[in-house]
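Task card 7
Instruction: Convert sequence to structure tokens.
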Amino acid sequence: MRVLVAPDKFKGSLPASEVADRLAEGLATAGVDSHRMPLADGGDGSVDAAVAAGFTPHPVTVAGAAGNPGGGRIAVGDGTAVVEVANTCGLTTLPDGRKLPLDASSFGMGQAISEALRYRPRRLVLALGGSASTDGGMGLLAALGFTFADERGVLLRPCGRSAGRVHTVDSSRAALPAGVEIVVAGDVTNPLLGPNGAAAVYGPQKGATAADVRFLDTGLNNLVAAFARSGYPDARAVATAAGAGSAGGIGFAALLLGATIVSGAEYFLELLEFDRYLTGADLVITGEGSIDEQTANGKLPTVLARRSRPVPVVAVAGRSTLSREQWEPAGFTTVYSLGDFTDRDTAGDPELTRELLIRIGRRIGRTTAVPPRTRSAQNR
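Output:
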């Protein structure tokens, strides 16, 4: 039995690499060999997934979301550089976990892009999950040489608080990535502005109050107008594009730079050569922190299950709210949930999560004596 272990992260508990390691450890105790392939869908953990697939990691020193210096890393391999928000200026870079919905900036992401361009990639992949800012990508662009000024010509700090004061945008001294294909890998389809925009939908997750959301959305509207009168006549149309609202508007900035937005799950399966490792596999094990009604909407486990057919796919989740009638159409032969093996809350408990993943891996290994399609989960 040849098993491919290809999970996403269990957010808040374990990165994808450790999820894969623990499942593989459990399989090994049942005498089953496996190949580990940690995955990502364009969110946090994308650089780690690329490194696990053979990309070279490069540490970078950048400004965190609050402007505090910190360390992140990028991944470079075969003409492609992967840069992510989460490990450069995402929520986890905020000091003491304190959210700053108006003052957080995407500047560190732009610094990481500048570092990535030193390796002369043909393709730049931007992973935008886990952002802390709602600055319309001002910070990212400022790190590349853009400047933002108010009506008096005073330069502004690139953050959401400043967006409503921007009058002119100057890109004349910007170091733009000429000749580089820019890809935004993600599944956010929100526009930049309005009730479905970056501030309204994602601002509260970043600590924004109702008043902050209104302030930020007004500021982003003004920022778009400033771009339109500063040599970007298509700025208003770009702001309405699907994905422009991703990562607090970093998607908008990326589109202004000529980026293409693609499905994060599909793109990373291609980038990490999933199909090559699928060849010859008898079983695929995937998973993520939660498998629920949203899983079928383009999330990684479902996309992977569709691509794996006819190879059977077992899903493992921190929690699952799906019944058999729901998971089988999604492409899973079985779904194991950590909650089926304990009465304790596993969220934020890495040690318990590791222990249960090993146990589940062992259970899956023991059921491979017959084709997995015929097996149902024996949860206890």
